[in-house]
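Protein Record: Sequence and Backbone Structure Tokens
======================================================
Tokens: labelled as protein backbone structure tokens, with as many entries as the chain has residues.
Task: work out the structure tokens from the sequence, keeping to the layout shown below.
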Amino acid sequence: MNIKIWDITTGDNPRTFASHKKRITDIAMIEKGRNFVSSSLDGTIKLWDCGSGSNFCTLKRKESLNDGVTSVHITEKVKETAGTETSSRYPEEFGTENKILLAGHISGVISGFDLCTKQELFSVPSMGGSVESISGVHDQSCHLIVGYSDGVVAKWDISDISKPLKKFRIPGKNVINMSLDNSIGLISNELSVFQIDNNLEQITLAKDDDQISGLKVGEKLYINTNFGDIFVYSK
């Protein structure tokens, strides 16, 4: 399974990253993009150097090495713990200090890693369904919104994982992707937008269940599908 970088002006493919053994599920850039992480259903999270194309580190959930990874998210450490790790261990590594890597798994567990030391710090317990999407909350680095395969959406504080801060269920929907702008969640199974803090459904755009990811840029929503189409919705 490969990841490719494309030049959108020429159509050239200057770099290909190959190492995962099963379907690649997500990618997250680290700072300006010298490094990035990718996840796969083979249970691995890989750190890559864009310049050389090398995979310089591979992470797995220690309690279940083959638990497929469905999504990844990078957030800043809370102030109380920032600056406590050792320096980066790899010469290809840039910008990993004071960052936490969160990985959602098929089991429903969320693993939290220190991106600099590569140590697994904590594990958010499963709520039943597989994790399908992890998104951060604007200006609250320790808060996450997590979408699950059984339609559950939960808000977690990673400084206290004993129970979610808030949770609700979207009946009959599989939360396959979610992107956030402040507290707005995009649930792209039927393409519905929810206000996370009060569970208020704001808009629903009727579509077939073929959406696979969504991105909000300004006042527009960009949705891509299993058929290779990209739809743009204006507010």
